[in-house]
Write a structure and sequence with these properties.
single chain, 235 residues, alpha+beta, 2 domains, three-stranded antiparallel β-sheet, 6 helices, 14 strands, binds zinc ion
Length: 235
């Protein structure tokens, strides 16, 4: 497939600096915990990891050690608690962190920050159109397949996806397919489905937030509490 963006709009460069962030990578299958499904794809500053490692090392007894590395039972889509950075996040956790290499691209004078650049191949035959990193460090990729589906079936354009991602207010695990997560932007009345960091689809449900609540796995909804005028964008 032809590139979605004209080359003249895309100036990309790799960051020269060393690793400053790590990315959480979970094994996504039937056994994956809600915690790890929610954490999958989150980018965490090395400093948070180091602070937590220091706290664990400095702990003088087992209780303090446990406190410094608390096991989680609920999904975390919003702000990361200070005692959560390094896996394991729970008993028998298979999640790891890997070095994260951000890249910077410029499209229409706007910086795009992610590990994937527009035009890069994604999962075989897909192509990255936009890589969005939110203020909690989640990277979500809009591919040509996302746009193809969203444009044909739901009349959405790239700017609709970006506006929706910037105003996501609620996140949850999807109930019908627990490998997936769902999000809702009240501002745009947009319901999102994500899988492994990819925006699978988005559309405006007739009954808005109630639709999102029905699609969410019971007990996994997290409110991201965006204040008016505040954006979900990292930069
Ligand atoms: Zn886990």
């Amino acid at each position: 497939m032809k590139s979605t963006l004209p080359a003249s709009l895309l100036k990309a460069k790799k960051m020269k600096a060393g690793v400053e962030e790590v990315k959480v990578v979970a094994v996504i299958d039937k056994k994956t915990s809600a915690v790890c499904r929610s954490m999958h794809g989150r980018i965490i500053p090395i400093k948070s990891v180091k602070d937590q490692a220091d706290a664990i090392t400095a702990a003088t007894d087992i209780e303090e050690k446990k406190k410094a590395s608390r096991w989680q039972s609920k999904p975390i889509f919003g702000k990361l608690p200070s005692d959560v950075a390094l896996p394991p996040y729970h008993f028998r956790c298979r999640t790891i962190v890997v070095a994260y290499f951000p890249q910077i691209a410029e499209i229409d004078g706007k910086n795009v920050n992610g590990s994937l650049l527009p035009g890069e191949k994604y999962k075989g035959n897909k192509e990255v159109v936009f890589s969005h990193v939110d203020r909690f460090g989640y990277e979500r990729v809009v591919t040509d397949k996302t746009l193809e589906h969203g444009g044909t079936d739901h009349g959405l354009k790239l700017k609709d996806y970006i506006a929706g991602l910037n105003s996501l207010e609620s996140m949850a695990i999807q109930s019908r397919d627990e490998r997936r997560t769902v999000g809702y932007s009240r501002d745009r009345n947009l319901f999102f489905v994500f899988e492994d960091g990819e925006v699978i689809t988005a559309y405006s449900p007739d009954d808005g937030e109630n639709y999102f609540k029905r699609e969410a796995l019971k007990g996994t909804i997290e409110s991201l509490s965006i204040k008016k005028g505040e954006s979900n964008e990292k930069m």
